[in-house]
Design goal:
The chain has one domain (about 5-80). Helix 1 (about 5-20) packs antiparallel against helix 3, helix 1 (about 5-20) packs across helix 5 (about 60-80) and helix 4 crosses helix 5 (about 60-80). The longest helix has 19 residues, at about 60-80. The model has no long low-confidence stretch (mean pLDDT about 90). The protein has five helices and no strands. The N and C termini lie far apart (about 40 Å). The protein is an all-alpha fold and about 90 residues long.
Length: about 90
């Protein structure tokens, strides 16, 4: 499988950043407060890789997968109405 080295590097950098935070509720809250700088690179990878490539990156970089899972859970919570968006954001 040929995945762009740029996308692998982005996933690796995200993985390293995410893994600085403990895998717990408190760690997730801290992580979510410090994701802003990773959002554009994350979106670049998500938007340009197909599902097979993403599955590969998730398997290789657990922190990248953790970020995707947290963002997905947040989106689902907002959609269900369990979480509210802050006004102006």
């Amino acid at each position: 499988m040929e995945i762009s080295s740029q996308y692998k590097e982005i996933a690796k950098n995200i993985d390293e950043h995410v893994n600085k935070y403990p895998d717990s509720n408190i760690g997730d809250e801290s992580l979510l407060r410090n994701l802003f700088e990773l959002m554009i690179p994350f979106k670049t990878v998500i938007g340009n890789c197909n599902n097979v490539e993403l599955d590969y990156l998730y398997a290789q970089f657990p922190g990248f997968y953790r970020m995707a899972s947290l963002l997905e859970a947040m989106a689902e919570g907002i959609q269900r109405g369990d979480l509210e968006m802050l006004k102006g954001h």
